[in-house]
Amino acid sequence: GAVVSQHPSRVICKSGTSVKIECRSLDFQATTMFWYRQFPKQSLMLMATSNEGSKATYEQGVEKDKFLINHASLTLSTLTVTSAHPEDSSFYICSADTSERSYNEQFFGPGTRLTVL
Amino acid sequence: DAKTTQPTSMDCAEGRAANLPCNHSTISGNEYVYWYRQIHSQGPQYIIHGLKNNETNEMASLIITEDRKSSTLILPHATLRDTAVYYCIVSGAGSYQLTFGKGTKLSVIP
Q1: Tens digits of per-residue pLDDT, B42-78?
Q2: Tens digit of each residue's pLDDT (9 = 90 or more) over A93-110
Q3: How far is CA A2 from the centre of its chain?
Q4: A23 forms bridges with which residues in the sheet?
Q5: Which residues from chain A sit within 8 angstroms of residue B91, using beta carbons?
Q6: How far, in Å, CA of B12 to CA of B82, rounded?
Q7: Rounded to the nearest 5°, which phi and psi values hold at A27?
Q8: Touching check for A91 and chain B: CB below 8 Å?
Q9: Which one of B36, B55, B66, B88 has the fewest CB atoms closer than 10 angstroms to its CB?
Q10: Count of pairs with CB atoms under 8 A, one residue in A, one in B
């Protein structure tokens, strides 16, 4: 099956620093990648959708200047949390879609747990 | 995308079948029913999807009612490793977004 990796799996940083999270599709090309955020005991919330080579589309309420997304290749997307604050502490999950099928089958990464002190 | 309604939680005895219901009464003709699950502190895992017909794979079976307003995910022989939150999602063929609700927390009990 298709595999999506994320790095790092866990990161702790000081308030005000920036953190970059990588999402890679290991054995397929991902035309579209998605970034989700999940707070404790809550469901996944879609943050943004990115297509290779174009600007990401952000969901309402998600600051594009704070959460920078770069989808530079068909196998790599990065999410940078700029000037992180404690309220940004969350579980960040990416997913990838090959767009080769008529139905929507997303493959999810294992997630990155961000803790901002 | 159509909204779904699922029970908040369910228990199932190990080795028995787990039947997880989902209501999607506003589903439209070109929308698929997807099931994903999320084991604690991991990314969601695709289980199965269907449009009109019942579907079966190595993980589960999906039963969709004739009017498509509800469906049931069946795990034929639940194990402790099946303990997870199960999400029923309805999404159109032309949409690549998945909207996660609160899901059903399935606890498989020894």
Answers
A1: 999 999 999 999 999 999 999 999 999 999 999 999 9
A2: 999 987 666 666 789 999
A3: 17
A4: A6, A77
A5: 104
A6: 10
A7: -135, 20
A8: yes
A9: B66
A10: 63
CB contact under 8 A, A104 and B98: yes
A4 interaction partners in chain B (CB closer than 8 Å): 43
Going through chain B in order, the beta strands assigned E by DSSP cover 9-13, 18-23, 31-38, 45-50, 55-56, 61-64, 70-75, 84-92, 104-109
- Write phi, then psi, for A76 (nearest 5 degrees): -140, 130
CA of B14, closest CA in chain A: separation in Å? 25
The answer to whether the beta carbons of residues A37 and A45 sit under 8 Å apart is: yes
B6, two tokens: 């699922």
Query: What's the Cα-to-Cα distance from B86 to each of A25, A78, A84, B63, rounded to whole Å?
Result: 24, 27, 31, 15
* Distance from the B85 Cα atom to the nearest Cα atom in chain A, whole angstroms: 10
Supply the DSSP symbol for B1: -
The residue assigned the tokens 């994320």 is: A6
Measure in Å the smallest separation between the Cα of B43 and chain A Cα atoms. 4
Q: What percent of chain B has pLDDT over 90?
A: 84
Contact B101/B6 with Cβ under 8 angstroms? yes
The tokens for B76 are 């034929």
- Amino acid (1-letter code) at residue B7: P
Is the Cβ–Cβ distance between B90 and B25 less than 8 Å? no
